[in-house]
Design a protein that fits this description.
With 452 residues, this protein is of the alpha/beta class. Helix content is 44%, strand content 14%.
Length: 452
């Protein structure tokens, strides 16, 4: 990356503020992990500060980390040249959008699609209102951001559609860069730059009921409504009679962020395991959350990584962060089809992909992947592919942008009074005969927006 060499030679360093609304601490979920790793990667070429608006107990020798809201947050925003954020930051602190800072929106998580599953237990009215609210939260980001990051090419196609809907795909942006990569690019979730090394036994011979020579399947993250651990538990129940040393270990159940509510699927999963008589003998639940630095000891005590989910729109545009840790640990993977990683597993022969909610197919995949003669070779392929997913590679687009940041080509030309008037007029006319008369509508628009 020549830009990085140039900035190192010049001594000029962009001041970058990374903001997360998640908890920064020993126990971290995906958003906090991503913000932490972004800060570490950016620190090599920029001045960096990392702020949580929720809570923080972390520190780093090379950059500033703290909890901040209100006046303290304003001080950090005033300091920076570039602000990188995720989640609800702009909606919680709307004054940020009114600053002249260059803003990078990290939209790797399509939250409105996620909520369709997360909010299933709410009333229809609340679910509708929350979906509308989250969509508007995201639209505000799409309208204001100078640069956006997502997790995959498929996600990028999705977000380009939503960007078009809020008029961000426009001549100003297009004429600067017809590829639109200068507006939105890819920065997937990554894995640690250092090799995975075990420092202690965390599962085998440590967890009561799991012996040192048992075969362990690991579920590498939380148990949320959009996942399908139920089919997995039924598959394990089918296999136990012929594979008595098989064990399934759920790495985390309780989310470390207190603002994230317990989800129905977690309770349903434990209930099904109890009903099938598997809890404590063949299925095990870590009800807390594993420390971020300690998770390697659990991963390297496992023999197979698994990720099962339902077939719905959240799956189609997801990027399962738990699978990144499987790559890091060299674990062969069994996954449900339908998401981005399913395609990568098939393309690079990293394990086995099965149809959604197919217990028999899942059981057969576990046997062939875990006990098959190709397991060692699969593990090597997983590790080799993992090399391409290290944070130093996945965050290249963000690093290059922050080294040479620029305001969006349409900064200051968005959401003008004319465009708002057009939106209102369309809203009034779309159910009238004028809307259907193409020529008449064109005349109306020409009168509303005179040619230059």
């Amino acid at each position: 990356m020549s830009k990085l060499t140039n900035v190192a030679a010049s001594g000029a360093r962009t001041r970058v503020l990374v903001i997360t609304g998640d908890v920064l601490g020993a126990k971290m979920a995906g958003p906090a992990i991503r913000a932490w790793e972004m800060s570490k990667a950016l620190n090599s070429v920029c001045e960096v500060r990392l702020v949580s608006t929720q809570a923080s107990t972390l520190s780093h020798n090379d950059f500033h980390v703290e909890f901040a809201v209100d006046n303290e947050l304003r001080r950090h925003v005033e300091w920076c040249d570039v602000l990188v954020f995720q989640g609800y930051t702009l909606s919680t602190f709307p004054w940020i959008a009114k600053t002249d800072k260059i803003i990078v929106a990290d939209i790797y998580d399509p939250m409105h699609l996620e909520y369709l599953e997360q909010g299933k237990d709410n009333s229809a009215r609340k679910r509708t209102k929350m979906t509308e609210y989250i969509s508007e939260v995201l639209n505000v980001q799409l309208e204001r951001a100078d640069y956006l990051l997502c997790a995959s090419e498929k996600q990028r196609d999705f977000w380009l559609g939503q960007l078009s809907a809020v008029s961000r795909v426009n001549p100003l942006v297009y004429d600067r860069d017809p590829s639109l990569r200068s507006l939105i690019d890819i920065a997937p979730f990554g894995i640690a730059n250092d090799p995975a090394k075990q420092t202690r036994r965390a599962i085998k011979g440590t967890v009561p009921g799991i012996a040192a020579d048992d075969q362990v399947i690991i579920w590498g993250g939380g148990v949320y409504n959009w996942f399908d651990p139920l089919t997995l538990i039924r598959a394990v129940a089918q296999l136990v009679p012929t594979h008595p040393k098989l064990r399934l270990y759920f790495l985390g159940v309780k989310h470390p962020n207190p603002d994230v509510p317990a989800m129905r699927m977690a309770a349903d999963t434990m209930q099904l395991s109890d009903e099938l008589g598997l809890t404590g003998t063949h299925v095990f639940f870590n009800t807390e959350w594993v420390d971020y630095e300690d998770r390697v000891n659990y991963l390297l005590d496992a023999d197979l990584g698994v990720s099962t989910h339902f077939e719905h729109v959240e799956t189609a545009f997801s990027f399962r962060t738990r699978i990144l840790d499987y790559l890091w640990a060299g674990l062969p993977i069994v996954s449900t089809d339908g998401d981005t990683f399913a395609g990568l597993i098939k393309q690079h022969d990293l394990g086995t992909v099965v149809p959604p909610e197919d217990t028999a197919a899942l059981a057969a995949a576990i046997v062939s992947t875990l006990y098959g003669a190709d397991r060692s070779a699969t593990s090597e392929r997983v590790r080799a592919f993992g090399e391409t997913m290290r944070w130093q590679h996945t965050l290249e687009a963000l690093i290059e942008f922050c080294v040479s940041p620029h305001a969006a080509a349409d900064r200051g030309r968005r959401a003008s009074p004319v465009s708002k008037e057009v939106r209102r007029a369309i809203g009034r006319l779309r159910h009238t005969s004028v809307w259907r008369r193409t020529d008449g509508f064109r005349v109306f628009v020409r009168k509303l927006i005179p040619s230059r």
